Amino acid sequence: MPIDVNDVIRLLCCISEERKMKAAVKHSGQGALVAGATAFLGGLMGGPPGIAIGGAVGGLFGAWMSAGQFKPIPQIILELPPAEQQKLYDDAFAIIRNLDWTDAAQLTALVMGNAALQQKLAGVLINYLSHELRAEIRYGD
Fold it and tell me: What value does the mean pLDDT take over residues 22-45?
C-alpha cells in the first residue's frame, strides 16, 4: 500500500523518540570559513606571522563553532528539505514495503510492536545521519 512521505517521516520520528536519539550536526564548512577568514585578516595586518597567528586563532574558533550541539533527531528530520526526506522515505520503505497495513496509524503500531523492524529503521536513520549529514549520534538524555 502506498504511504505518504510525511507518514514515514513521522514513523521515523516515533522510533527515534522511543530510543531518545539525539544528533549533533557538525558545521565544518562554517568553521573552515572562519579559520580562512581570520588567517587572511591576520596576513593583511601582520604579514606572514599574522597568517600563522590568524590561522591558529581562527582554527580554534572554527573548531569551537563546528562542534554542534545535540538536538533531538525528530527535530532534525522534520527540518530536512523535501528531497532529503524523500531519500529517508525510500530507504525506510524498502524495509516496510512487504508489511500489510491499511493506514499510517496501523503501520506505526505494527512497527512499534516489532523490535526487529524498529532496529532496522533506526539503522536507516543512523546511516543517513552519519553519512549524509555527518552527524554524531547519542542515546538517552
Answer: 73
User: Hey, which bits of the chain come out as E strands?
Assistant: 21-25, 71-72, 135-139
What are the pLDDT digits (tens) for 73-132? 999 899 989 999 999 999 999 999 888 888 888 888 999 999 999 999 999 999 998 888
H or E stretch covering 102: none
Q: Which of 132, 140, 121, 127 is nearest to 13 (CA)?
A: 121
Report the distance separating Cα 91 and Cα 110, nearest Å. 18
92 grid coordinates? 525506510
Instruction: Kindly list the strands in the beta sheet with 71-72, ordered across the sheet, starting from the edge strand earlier in the chain.
Output: 71-72, 21-25, 135-139
Torsion-angle region of 4 (φ positive above 0: left; ψ -120 to 50: alpha; else: beta): beta
Q: Are 94 and 127 in contact (CB under 8 A)?
A: no
Opening angle at CA 47, ends 45 and 52, nearest 5: 95
Three-state secondary structure call for residue 136: strand
Task: Determine contact, residues 72/22, Cβ cutoff 8 Å.
Answer: yes
Segment holding 68, helix H or strand E: none
